[in-house]
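Cross-check.
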Amino acid sequence: NRDIPLLRIANPEPAEGAEKQTIWVVCREHPGETPASFVCEGMIRALLDHPAGKRLRSAFSFAIVPMLNVDGVARGYYYHNARGVNLARDWVVFKSAEVRALRAALLENGRMDTPRLMLNLHSSNDPGKGHFFLIIPSDRLKPEDAEFQRTILEAGDRNHPQLQGHSTVKLLGLPGITGNALYRQYDLYSIYLESNYSRGADGSLVTVESLRAVGAALVQTLAEVLTPE
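Predicted model, tokenized:
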């Protein structure tokens, strides 16, 4: 019976009939991936305090799930929830209450009209890799989404040395993975960031502050692509 937190960040509601699309940020599908929480914190700070965040809030609202797998965190698990389910691969069978709750939140009023994009924040336990993006292969995307993905990665390259868009890994084609299921069922594109525990994409040391800075760089990247000056 633990609550799953949901934080909403938005400017005052627009005029009737001008509802903003929502950018979703989902963190800690895997409970042990703690670096992702600091990236999420950096995003929240930038959305509230940075000019790039202000630009984004003028065009979008944000729905942030800072910890989806609350039971797994409470029990000290790494990948699974209290019932042994990997939330990141539960979008076909829906065994977990957590994924069912997230799906219901996305399907506001029974429709998937308002979500524009999802950022799924993870952490990689592979010591041989720094930060990297998990991407949907271009041949599985519509042309406009493949171009959007390419643009996001290029912008990420510019905004923080630990956030390199050319260091990518392809998302597995399994249908139960969150990003695949959302795209196939609802045309909702998801981009994943895997943050390493010890080093960034450029090999530099990862710290709490560098992870927060990566979160701010993600906000800057979104602002450049989605709300160009």
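Strands lie at 7-9, 21-27, 60-65, 115-124, 132-135, 168-170, 190-196. Residues 47 and 53 are 4 Å apart (CA to CA). Passed to J.P. for a second look.
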